[in-house]
Amino acid sequence: CSPSTMAPSHALRCCKRALNWVPVLFINLVVGWSYYAYVVELCVYTIPNNAERISYLVIFHIFLAMFIWSYWKTIGSRPASPSKEFCLPRAEKDLFEREERAEAQQEILKKVARNLPVYTRTAGGAIRYCDHCQIIKPDRCHHCSTCEMCVLKMDHHCPWVNNCVGFSNYKYFVLFLAYASLYCAVICATVIQYFIKFWTKQLPDTHAKFHILFLFFVAALFFISILSLLSYHLWLVGKNRTTIEAFRAPVFTNGPDKSGFSLGFSRNVTEVFGDQAKYWIFPVFSSLGEGHSFVTRLVHIDPEQANSILQQNGKV
Ligand SMILES: [Zn+2]
Ligand SMILES: [Zn+2]
């Protein structure tokens, strides 16, 4: 590229990158306004007695803190990408690039993949290879065109957090949905009595009225939509499926199987949330494994070996 053709595409890319933050900005503005409406208009101006005011403020701030914490962890976690072991070694890479026939390229990939823990294939039965990143894709790894990288255990690219949801932040994402719906539920449950009082004109028309009526509607709307997304993801966690796998079953050496990674409900939950219950409710990393390999039902290994792998993963 000559500098004259590079400049506009660079500017375009910067512009696109800035635009990607618009949904995050929107969420932050809504949360910022909800904070003002709840703390100032409801708690300061509308609630008449101190005991109620203080208890509402304490509960509200606890849920807000957990919600913001898990939201920013989801946004701030860099997606995990495959380690160097999944790149072709120098000699094989040269061979691969010189080779023009797809079958011969597959033979090279097969040879390298023999030493890697990859058990899934493309729909056609070939080794999964990313041409952009030039790596053999680990199981459950997918290339994200927005992030321009391969993401381990990719779930989906989420515009609301402007980040890929995958191995590195899936737990944070589920907690973000849980705390966001709890935050909305707390608002709805505490605002409703004042909502009714304003609606039925038991309270005078003040500027607080507009904020409180609107606050209840917005919180109820977000609660319903986030709760349905949360239920879907809890179901996915229980089934050990990613959103991508729910739409297209992963293909193993002996065919597609949408439950190929499922190890039973409790084991599936531990894989995402970790085996120490004290960390489950906090957005700190406690998922099991390292994201490159997953125990599958279809790989025939004896139970002893499977157990030692699970324990190893637990330690990591
Ligand atoms: Zn890639
Ligand atoms: Zn992405």
UniProtKB/TrEMBL annotation:
Membrane spanning residue stretches: 21-47, 53-72, 172-196, 208-232
Domain Palmitoyltransferase DHHC: 128-247
Membrane-topology annotation of the record: Multi-pass membrane protein
Catalytic activity reported: L-cysteinyl-[protein] + hexadecanoyl-CoA = S-hexadecanoyl-L-cysteinyl-[protein] + CoA
Entry's localization field: Membrane
Pfam assignment, any one: DHHC
Entry EC no(s): 2.3.1.225
Keywords on record: Acyltransferase, Membrane, Transferase, Transmembrane, Transmembrane helix
GO molecular function: protein-cysteine S-palmitoyltransferase activity
InterPro entries: Palmitoyltrfase_DHHC, PFA4/ZDH16/20/ERF2-like
Gene Ontology terms: cellular component: membrane
Domains (record comment): The DHHC domain is required for palmitoyltransferase activity.
Family: Belongs to the DHHC palmitoyltransferase family.
Name of the featured protein: Palmitoyltransferase
Organism, as annotated: Dicentrarchus labrax (European seabass)
